[in-house]
Write a structure and sequence with these properties.
Length: about 90
């Protein structure tokens, strides 16, 4: 992956500014930029984990050996379970 050139970005943090200030005061980070970069890395990890979980769930559904049922039957079961009438 090619490294992107540094870019200056102005961000209004609102209430999150307090979180940044607390982390700077703790000494865990040396600058606002370090805090924001850490937050973006955490967001990337979270999104990657969610994508992997969703892919796993889809694959499990595809690998399920139980026979498929027609969509209308599935909806009829749901309607019956929830006491709903079919809209036609």
């Amino acid at each position: 992956m090619t490294k992107a050139s540094p870019r200056t970005l102005t961000v209004s943090l609102g209430p999150q500014q307090k979180l940044v200030d607390e982390r700077l005061a703790s000494g865990a980070y040396a600058s606002d930029s370090e805090v924001v970069r850490a937050g973006l890395r955490a967001l990337e990890r979270e999104e990657t984990a969610l994508d992997e979980a969703l892919r796993r769930m889809v694959q499990e559904a595809l690998d399920d050996p139980r026979p498929s049922i027609p969509i209308e039957e599935a909806f009829e079961r749901l309607r019956a379970k929830h006491g709903l009438r079919a809209k036609r």
